[in-house]
Specification:
By secondary structure, the chain is an alpha+beta fold. It contains nine helices and twelve strands. A hairpin with a 5-residue loop joins strand 10 and strand 11. The protein is globular and about 70 Å long. This is DUF4331 domain-containing protein. Pfam families: DUF4331 (PF14224). It comes from Kribbella sancticallisti.
């Protein structure tokens, strides 16, 4: 989770696996939007000598829809290539790396950025440098400096970064996948045990991040910066994808050669969509589809399996949720169409009737001066599900929504169970602190500095 190993096939191909997508009006530059797509889940910081890197054979994209049809009107494409400087050594680095240009880094990686709008492509930059991973104090003695060197300017008020960061997502993976246990509430579970604090399953884990910061005017339908929150043109949809060429052949040297057109193998908009909503037998199909075709999966949103499981796993805790038999129009609005005018006073992020899983961001909503990680449900309209900031507690928000907290927005006759407003997995970010400026995700855990955990079997 949020989309780490979410489908059978992509779990075997982590270099192409989307883990999280973020989209928000930049708090320190409110005339811009920051778009972030993470890939390569569950990175052990000490995973050498072949440390993690972007796939040279993967097409990574961040898509923006500013129409009403769920289609990508603007796509930013990222293509990577690695080089080996000394082919006679197994070492990732042959000495300290004090600059991303140092020759002591034996396997540097570079990338290009291309903007595609309505079928027309424009290369924005070539041969941009990726920083090395955070190896340790001898190999990467000043990692903050190295990462800073990799923040590239690709035009007026436009920045890009691609490289390793701390995983900003947090969730109690070990507990949730053990029959839906939420440690703070496990005394009420069907198989009870004493309540406990949540355990962040992403602690000390890194990801590879593609982050892009561009003017709002680059993304809107008419090229203007909207000021009215209720203006339909103020809303954009965002999702990311990874694609591979259609055919793979192994040559006589044991190397893979890819041929043919690109085919999408992974995508992500809203957190937890494929992970928790789509049935296992359809997860790989969902990954290969475009959001505009998500009507085929709408039944799993309007009648989510988890909403039926909560009353069973927590007997007597969710009687009102158990009795509610109407289609979940609240979840359909949050995840598939955006929230129309009149549901939340003074707010909307509706993109039209086409059902498509995308983050929907109303760019006319300014950054919050007192941000709340629970976002819109806590009265902070600058947070999830209005886009998604790196610190938003999306697990709690979506758990509470599935538990019925948001049903009254579309069905005032329903009163949620008391537990719906309290349910959570009890975790918070336990990795390095989020940054207050681009690229916002924290410094990745270092290989030398990180201590492996102690497995427990009882």
């Amino acid at each position: 989770m949020s989309s780490h190993r979410e489908a059978p096939e992509i779990s075997k191909d982590p270099v192409a696996d989307n883990t999280d997508v973020y989209a928000f009006v930049s708090p320190d530059k409110p005339d811009t939007v920051t778009l972030i797509a993470n890939f390569i889940p569950f990175q052990n910081p000490y995973g050498g000598p072949n440390f993690y890197e972007f796939g040279d054979d993967v097409l990574y994209q961040i898509h923006v829809s500013n129409g009403a049809d769920g289609r990508a009107d603007i796509s930013y494409q990222f293509r990577f290539h690695a080089e080996i400087r000394n082919k006679k050594t197994f070492l990732y680095n042959t000495g300290p790396i004090t600059s991303i240009k140092d020759s002591t880094w034996n396997r540097p990686q570079y990338y290009s950025v291309t903007r595609v709008e309505n079928g027309r492509s424009r290369i924005l930059a070539r041969n941009l440098r990726v920083p090395p991973v955070n190896i340790g104090p001898r190999s990467t003695p000043d990692y903050t400096k190295l990462a800073g060197e990799a923040i590239q300017t690709i035009g007026p008020n436009r920045k890009v970064f691609a490289g390793q960061r701390a995983d900003g997502f947090f969730a109690d993976l070990g507990s949730i996948f053990d029959l839906g246990t939420l440690r703070p509430f496990q005394l009420a579970h069907l198989i009870p045990s004493a309540a406990a604090m949540g355990v962040n399953g992403l602690q000390a884990q890194n990801v590879h991040t593609i982050a892009l910061q561009v003017p709002i005017t680059d993304l809107t339908r008419d090229g203007k910066r909207p000021q009215d929150v209720l203006d339909p043109k103020a809303v954009i949809g965002v999702y990311a994808s990874a694609s591979r060429r259609q055919s793979k052949l192994l040559d006589g040297l044991g190397l893979a050669r890819w041929h043919g057109p690109y085919r999408q193998v992974s995508r992500l908009g809203n957190p937890l969509f494929n992970e928790v909503i789509v049935p296992m037998a359809e997860k790989d199909k969902w990954n290969a589809r475009a959001p505009k075709d998500d009507k085929a999966f709408a039944e799993y949103v309007t009648k989510p399996e988890l909403a039926g499981l909560l009353p069973v796993l927590y007997p007597g805790v969710f009687p009102k949720l158990a009795a509610y038999k109407k289609p979940r129009a609240d979840l359909a609005a949050i995840l598939l169409t955006g929230i129309p005018k009149g549901v939340v006073p003074g707010f909307q992020n509706y993109t039209g009737p086409v059902q498509a899983d995308m983050l929907r961001l109303n760019v006319a909503v300014p950054p919050s001066k007192a941000p709340d990680p629970l976002g819109l449900v806590a009265g902070d309209a600058a947070g999830f599900p209005n886009g998604r900031r790196v610190f938003d507690d999306v697990v709690t928000v979506e758990l509470r929504a599935v538990a019925g907290l948001t049903i009254p927005l579309v069905d005032p006759s329903f009163t949620p169970d008391a537990a719906a407003g309290a349910i959570k997995d009890g975790t918070s970010n336990t990795n390095s602190d989020y940054l207050t400026k681009f690229p916002y995700l924290g410094t990745p855990a270092g290989g030398y500095q990180t201590k492996p955990g102690i497995p427990a079997v009882s």
